[in-house]
Design a protein that fits this description.
It is a single chain. It is built from three helices and eight strands. The longest helix has 15 residues. By secondary structure, it is of the alpha+beta class. It is globular and about 45 Å long. Helices cover about 20% and strands about 45% of the residues.
């Protein structure tokens, strides 16, 4: 089995931004899945680098409705975007990503893991 890595453009909003321009900047976000490492987990890397690891199922369910697991929340934002909210001791980061990019990533993860697509 091979790992899946995909990059997406995202808007990041943090509670530590210095200006409105900082809050609305577009940045690359890395999405990674390695079934040999842990077939249930996905990794999201934000600039900095800040990596978050959480259940693949959380990402999938968050495209349909609000879900929370620990320090990570995911929910749909309109028809074409999703929001991921990450809490850490340094603050909160909101990441807004096109849902199509997340769906494409999830489909690729199910293909390499041999798991039927549930979405």
């Amino acid at each position: 089995m091979h790992a899946v890595e995909q990059y997406a453009r995202a808007h990041i909003v943090t509670d530590t931004a210095d200006s409105l321009d900082d809050e609305r900047r577009t940045v690359p976000v890395a999405l990674r899945y390695d079934p040999e490492d842990d077939p249930r987990q996905v990794h999201i890397t934000l600039p900095g680098p800040h990596e978050w690891t959480f259940e693949r199922e959380l990402l999938e369910q968050g495209l349909r409705g609000p879900v929370t697991s620990g320090d990570v929340r995911v929910w749909p934002c309109g028809r074409v975007q999703a929001v991921m909210e990450f809490h850490s001791p340094k603050g909160v980061a909101l990441v807004q990503v096109d849902s199509k990019a997340l769906l494409r990533f999830l489909r690729r993860t199910y293909t390499v893991s041999g798991t039927p697509v549930a979405h």
